Every structure is written in C-alpha cells, then in structure tokens.
Amino acid sequence: MAGLTLDLIGLQLFAGVALGAVYVLLAIGLSLIFGMLTVVNFAHGAFYMLGAYVGLWLMAHGGNFWLCLVLVPLVVGGIGLAVERVLIRPLYGRGIDYPLLLTFGLSYIIVELVRITFGKAGFPFDTPEVLQGAVDIGVGFFPLYRLFVIAATAVILFGLWLFLERTSFGLIIRAGARDPLIVRVLGVNVSKVWLIVFGMGTAIAAFAGLLAAPLQGVIPEMGGTILAEAFVVTVVGGMGSLLGAVLAGILVGVVVSMTSLFAPEMAKVAIFALMALVLLIRPQGFFGRAGLMS
Amino acid sequence: MTSKTPRSTTLNRRSLIAGGAAIAAAPFSFHTARAQEPTIKIGFPVPLTGPYGAEAQDQVRAAEVAIAEFNAGGGLGGRKAELLVRDDKLNPGEAATRALELIENDKANFIVGSLSAAVQLAINNVTKQRGVIFNSISQSDAINEVADFSKYTFHEALTPHLTAGAVGRYAFSKFGKKVAFLTADYAYGHEMVRGFQEAGKGMGVEVLGDIRHPIGATDFSTLLPRLQSMKPDILVINNFGRDQQIALKQATDFGLKKTTKIVVPIMLFTGRQSAGLAAFDGVVGGTSYYWGIEDQLPSAKSFNDQFRKLHGGRVPSDYGAMGYAGVRTVLQAVKNAGTVETDKVITALESLKYDYYKGPQYFRKCDHQSVQSVMIIECKTKDMRNDADVFQVVANEAPNEANLRSCEALGHKA
Amino acid sequence: MATDLAFEATRQPSPLLLWATRHRVALASLFLLLFPLVMPFKALAVMILIYGLYALGFNLLFGYLGLLSFGHSALFGAGAYLCGIAIVHFGWPWYLAIGLGLLAGMVVALVIGALAIRTRGIYFAMVTMALSQCVYYLFYQAVDLTGGENGLRGVNLKTVNLFGFDVDFLNPLSRYYIICGFVIAALWVLSRILASPFGAVIEAVRENEARARASGYDVMLVRLLTFVLSGAFCGLAGALLALHLSTVPIETMHYETSGLAVMMCLLGGMGTFFGPFIGAAIFLLLENLVSVWTSHWQLFVGLAFMVCVLFFPRGIWGTLMERMKA
Predict the structure, then answer these.
(1) C10-47 pLDDT, tens per residue?
(2) Backbone angles phi, psi at B396, to 5 degrees
(3) Which ipTM value was assigned to this complex?
(4) Range of the structural domain that residue A269 is part of
(5) Within-domain flag for A290
(6) CA-wise closest residue to C238 among C116, C155, C161
(7) How is chain C split into domains, by residue range?
(8) pLDDT digits (tens, 9 = 90+) for C61-89
(9) Do B49 and C298 touch (CB under 8 A)?
(10) Which chain B residues are within 8 Å of C47, Cβ to Cβ?
(11) CATH of domain C11-325
C-alpha cells in the first residue's frame, strides 16, 4: 500500500486512542448504570448531547471552557438525579423492559426540547484557544486538543478509581455491581446508591459530550449514533464491568482507526463485526457476568 | 373508494396546519379560493425533522413565495394554488408513504420537493407509476438515468456531476493538479468523484488517492493523517451536510489547510452558519445559488425581496431557493398551458425558458434536467454586511448542456 | 418476563372472552376488512398492516420465547430486498417474489439464529444486532443488485392477477385488500402454531428452560426453529413492504427498524396475540397524526411512551386484556 509508513501507523494508533477515549467515558456510565440498576439506559446519548448544549449555553453566557468542565457534569448530573428519582425509581422490580422503554421515550423528549430551545440547526463549538493547533508527538503532528481529550479521560478514570477503591461508598458500588441482592440483605440503603450511580453516569456522559463538542460541533442528533457504538463497547467489555468498558473502548477506537487505514469504508461495520466475533467466542464479553437480562 | 369520508371537512385545515407549523405564521392563507373551483394542489414532502430540518424549513418558505406570487397574479384564471407540506423525515419509506397520501388522499396535482437522493428516487418511483408530475429539488445523478426517469420526472436541482465539474474546472486551473479525495461512501459521493475526474481529464490532473468514509461519520481523525501524508495540492471533500462540517472542522484542526487547498462540491449556506467561519475559512465550493448575487442579477434581487417581505427580512438559502424555482416552474407551466392536465403541463414545462432567480434556465428535452449556472463561492472573512453575508461569488459558470452527462451516457436515445 | 396472560386461553375468564379468543383470527379479519375506512389514508393503513405483521413475527420470538432480538431488521429487510430483486432484476411473477421474500427471511434467520442462540439475555440482543448490521453492510455494498444507499427502485406492479382476474394494484383500496389477505393468512398460521403442541413447548422454554430440557425437549432446537419461524413472518412483511412502496429503502435494514419492532411490541403488550399489532397501529398513527400538527412530533411520541410505561405496564392491549379478565 502506497505511503504506508510506521509513522503513519503510529499516528493512526494515537487517533484511535483519542477516539476510544470518548467511547470509554460513555461506556463507563452505561456499564455502571446497567451493572447496578440493571437499567439499559437509552437516554444516555441524549445526556451526552445535553452536556454539549449546556456547555454551549454556559459559554454564550460568559463562562469559559474550564468552568464548563466542572459545571456541565454537575448540571446534567443533577438532571440525571431527578430523572432517576421521579421516573425510573417507580419501575424497579418490574423487569428490564420498562426502564428501557421509558428512557427511549425520554431521549425523544430531551432531543426535541433541545430542538425547540436551540433550533434544529447545529452550532460551532470553538476549541479553547490554548488547546488549538497541532504538536509533534514523534511520529507526526497531532491536534493538541485530542491529546487533551485523552488526558481528561485519564483524569476522570483515575478519579473514579479512587472513588471506587478508596471510599466506603465506592465499596458498596463495587459490591452492588457484583451482587445487588447480598448488598440489600446487608442492610445498605440501595435506593440512595442507585440514585447516585445514575447521577454519576449521566454526569460522565455529559462530560463526554462537552469533550466531543469542539471535535465535531453541536447538533441535537449527536447522541444517536454514538449511543449504538457505546453500547457495543459496553457489551464487548462485559456489561457491568468498568475495566471491561475501558479496555473495550480503547480497543474499539483502535480497531476503527486501523480499519480506516486499510479499508476506510468498512470502519463502521468493523465495530459490529468485532462485537459479533467477541460475543461468539466469549458470550458475556471480556469481563461480564453470563446470562444477564435473561 | 369513499372520497367523502368524515375527514374531508378537516382536510384543508389539516394541510394548513402542516404548512403553518413549518413556517410559523404565514401572512396569507391558502384556503380562500375554495368557493368555485378546487385549488391547484402542490404536494411538498421535505424532511422537516432530522438533521436537515433547518434546510427543509427554508425550502418551504421559498415555496410559499412562489405560491403567493401565483395567487397574487390571479392564479389560473382565478383558480388559486395551495401547498401541502408533508414531513418525509429524510426517510425514503416515509417519503413514499407521504407521496401516496398526497396523490391518493389529497388528490395533489403535482409533487415538488425532497432533500436527499434516496428520498427523491423513492418519491419519483411512486409518482411516475401514477402519472403525476414530480419536480425534484435535490441533487442526484441517478434520477436522470433512463432506469429512473419518466416523462413525469423533472429535476430542478443541479446534478452532482455538473456541480463537481464546475468546481473542478475552477479549482484545478487555480490551485494545482495533485488531487486527493475524501468521499462519503454512497452514490452521491461517488457521483461527485466522477464529476471531478471527468472535469480533470485533459487538464493533467493527477489523483493521489480516494479515501472513502461511511456516511454519517462523526470522526475523520483516523483518515486525515493518511490524506496529509499524500501531500496533495487540493483535497476534495465529497460529502454533505453534517459530514462535511465535521470533516472541514477536523481538517482545520489537523492543520491540513496550511499545505493544501480544500475544495467541496457543495458549500451549504446553512452549513456555514452552523459550523462557523473557522471550519469553512479558505474553502472553495460550488452552490446552486447564493443570495448575495443580487447586486449583479435583477431576478435574484426580485426573488430575495419577495422572500424578505414574506419572511421577516431573512434571505433564502441555496436549497431553499430551489423550492421556489421548483414550485414556480410548475405553476408557470400550468399558466402557459392554461390547464392542470398532466400531458399539457409537461409540454409547457419542456418549452419553458425562465430566469426566476439565478439567471437563464431551461429543461433539457431528453432527461428534464434543468440546465443552469453553477456558482463558485468562498467564505467572506471581512466586510460582512450582516449575519447572512457569509460568501462571495468568485466565479459563475454559465449554463451549458455540454457540462451535463450526455443523453446517451444516461441511456436516453439521442 | 414471565407473564401469566401470555397465552390468553390458559385461564377460564368470562365465556364472552373465551369465545372471542377462540375466534380471534375471524374477529381480527373482520376488523381488518373495515380498518381502511376509519384510517386517515389508505397508504397508512397498509403500513400498519405491514408493520403489524413485522411486530407479530418479532413477538413470536420476544413475547412467546422470551428472546430479545435487536436484529430483526435484517429479516424484514432481506424479505423486502429479495422480493424486490426478484421482480426488478429477474422479472419474477409477484406471488413467487413474495415467496422468495418469505424464504429469505427464514434463511437469514437461520444464519443469524444458528450463531446467536448460544448467547443469553442482553448479549443475545447485541449479537443479533451486530450480525444484522453485517447483513445491512452486505446489502449496502451490493449496489448493482440493491441500489445501495439510493435504495432499490422499480418494484412496480401495475396489476396483480388474482384467480384469473387482473386487479389494479395502483388502486389504494385493492392494494390494501390484497396485502390484507396475506396478513390474515399469516395471522391464521400464527394462531395455529401457538395453539399447537409446539406452541406450548415454546412457552415452556420461556417459563422454565431447565424443566423444558428435563422434559426431553431440545431447547436449542426450539429456539432456532422459533427464530426461523419468526423470520418467515418478518420476511413476508418485508416482501409486502417492497410491493406496497414499490421501492426498498436501505433504512429497512437499519438497526432502528429493529428497535421499532421492540417498541411496538412493548407498547402494545408483548406475549399477547394482538398486542404487537395494536402497538404498531398506535405508534404509526400517533407519529402520523402528530407530525401533521407539529414538526415537534417526537416530543409527543416520547411522552406517549413514558405514559405507557408508567400507566400501562403490560402494554396497551395487554393491560386491556388483564382488565377484562379481572
């Protein structure tokens, strides 16, 4: 193949990891929510989109990008808390289909409300000034902002790890992801844990949306396609497994970037082919429990 | 057939609401002339919901202008025209269902509309079987080919072949001969590539590579390094709408613009507005219409003024303007023919020579393609008069049948 | 997802309901014959028939066997494409083309099913979705046969020869009744399957897999057979769609079309005989009526979903049936 050099492959790998970073953030939220609440959250893409729009609104009203990085997850996470408390909580114990259908309806509503508020057309979202431009990473020039996305994701992951490993609340979540029944038997107030997990999941989704905004601009439909891809990542990693979500996210990003190099038009189907392959060999994904939702 | 079901009383209200929802409050109403003769009904399926909602809204606005103008001019001997707007949701199945509704239920006389290749082909397949005239206002090369074409099919929009050719002829002579393509992997993208390659023949153009991406891609970071390594003079990005906005934005981020001229076959007015100047800065593209041409073109001035008057001072977008031309050509043909009878209107359309908003146009006999000018535009970076003043026209390729695919190539006999 | 009203005749409710259940196909046929007269327009009535049949086929797997597939668009789409291709490229008569569509649905179901039935729960849903996306990609790339992104055009039937009579297929009402004939036949077959011993085995596998296996049934085989049967109904629905629209959009195969089946089923009431049909009717009607009123129709569709989940937990039809039995 013409022009195929080691540098190019290296650059391509970097692009893949940066792409995977956004998948990781979305998949972690999905996986947390599924592992704890057994809710297949179809509104996750809508929260991702909402993160970008809240950021847009804050920027238009005098905020800067750095402030947004803090405020956006708080605002959208708050909305997530309200959604869990008011809409999803009445459905626990009713089977897995109900929250699925509810969040599906909710995503329609969120997207439409954004269309009504901000209009159907999209908006540009400028890359923060200090992160503009490209830097030499040894194998070629790479946009600085994408490096920032990788770094920001790493920070979030580290924070999450500390929270889960080093706090007693994190211990409950880990235990709950492994066996919710036992946790309840031990007398833990599970509904409070679930509330916070849902809020955290949506906050991380919103954070991902904000990170993605300077990469592709902002549009009400931006949560749609990425949701399907995020589900793929979650399932490949194993539903409910955080480590799985991280590894699968990066793997999917790299698979996409490598397919782009050799057969670019197949980049999209490659994700699904990968998933089919993984699940046929290992039916519960990398680190998932078997037989979930059956 | 029960054409007088209880629903028929609400029919006019229903269509009015559809139009009304789309254009907020139109300052005139459609159903004033019901008393004597039935109105001339023009079905108008466009994707009001979905990623091109804003564009579709503008198509409706422009079509309203044509309807208002026709009715103000006395209609067809007092018989007024009415626009039946339907949301096709950018889905060919939905569009076909809507076309069936318009024809079978609402008894539409003509269909004008669509905003994607697949949608227009689906509508066309429905209308041609039922002998209803369809004037398509979005781009496709396939609709002119003999397999899809019928005598009821008209194509007011540009074709990808023509647009790409015009942009290619301009760009290859100015910015260099080494060309790379980034192309959305579907008919529209492939047609654009063919248009550029055809134009490049005989100009010594060297194609370094054509990288295909899946339609609806949101990330091009994995393709851009490869394109960068080809070191082209010109990078042609053959995709549409949001794909294009993201590709341009990310190409800018990757610093491609420093070494390479970026060229797009169609540069959208609404795209420039929603993606911002940074992404589109320095990019050269083609368009069917840019309102700023009004300084040089009286017909553009008069269309823009009517549009402004009806829609609170806003200016029409490129695809929007085609909604105007698409409806007005049909209504003018009705006037010329003195009837809504299909065969006579077809004859009238075929002999129409018109200049409604962008200079002279006419429908080519063999494939009913509107032969028209293509404008080459660039982003304005300074001296903008207002928010809508985003482009400047750097060239205007005159209408010329020789730039279209030949009738034989399309499968028509001479 | 164990629902005790899944098979409506297992309890002993009022004699009227029992009578209605026994004659459910006849009653449904009567309803469907009058249906186009109350619909906003005939083409919508036909769409409801087709999507209703599609959801019904999906429900056989989801509601009765308890397997959630997200890949049914591949079965539906394969039926539509093969029927269309047979007419456009090979000039087959329409009835053979429909047969081919039905067969295509079964074949694709067999392939996807054979690979996927070993996985469980949400993983089954995702494997079926992944495989259906691969099928989507195949059809997308086979431009010469399928038209690719532009869709397949030219599935044009002017007249349909029925028992020696040429019936005008462009007439909306006759088109409705021809398609309706197929749907009623499919309803009858489905009703027979569910009432047969095999139907009982399907539900036994859903209710208690271990016990079904202990009773000597090959659970994997039951799953695969049900998947293939489901494919037959979906393939037939697809073939009818191709004839009705005279085009096959590539969107037919997209995973969103799979999601549509799930939503219709849940909306109407999964595991009930008519639920999916009712779900399809309500979904399409709502979408159609509201989208004429406002371009913000998705807001109302979303609200309707949430109201259904919160207040009609067994789906609209399922809740209704429950009320009548109580």
Answers:
(1) 556 678 878 888 888 888 888 888 888 888 889 999 99
(2) -140, 105
(3) 0.90
(4) 11-129+140-281
(5) no
(6) C155
(7) 11-325
(8) 999 998 989 899 999 999 999 999 999 99
(9) yes
(10) 97
(11) 1.10.3470
